[in-house]
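Per reviewer request, we include the raw input and output of the structure prediction for the construct analysed in the revised manuscript.
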Amino acid sequence: MQYSVLFLTALAATTTLAAPSKHSSPDNQLEVKLSSDSISEVKTTFHELSATPKHPYSSGPFNSVALCAGQGVSNQAARCKILNEAGNPIVVQRGADTDITFADGAKGKWTFRDGPTQVSKIICDPTFQKITPAEAITAARIHVKLSDSAEFGIQRFFPLGQRQEMVVNSGPFTTVEVIVGDFVEKQDYRCQVLDEDDKAIHAVRGANRDTTFSDAGKGEWTFEKESVVGKVICDPAFKAAPAASA
């Protein structure tokens, strides 16, 4: 009888030690589910406060994503986003909403706007917010910023579509930055800057020298020579055309 009591006591202690902690419960996690018509659902879990990117065990391609916030997640409005192989956010849609971050909201899946896409990373960050109407307008445009050495600058927004030209006739300027909105499907969109004589201005960024300029998340391009700008052109047909140093 004594041994039975000792055995039961030891068993109770072992059970207590083996019980999962509150923080490991799925109820306190975010679960991202990627799916497509041809691939089994791929699930990735996050602690609600973790902003560390994760890689799904399969890259797809996928055409939809869902976020499930456990009942114990304090921020039920938590949002995540997914990146394609180029590191750009994938635009998703659900009902009337278009965004680059997505929430649970008990409303089901978000569909990839641009069709089946390879997914490289998933990020769930407590700072993510639903896009505002004003931000949505900007996200669908190309933003060109011209600046001089005194940090005076002008900004122009270009709608998408065919070749777009905008007269500037101002300056002189020393840098140009092209910012491609997250909703723009063609993230390698390029723009060109012409001087007063309609000649293409050469600019450099790192080891690159060119007469058409991209975003790529790498910041501004520096003009080889300070120049008055006559016109800015953004064209989906533009390609990188690296030029040898002058």
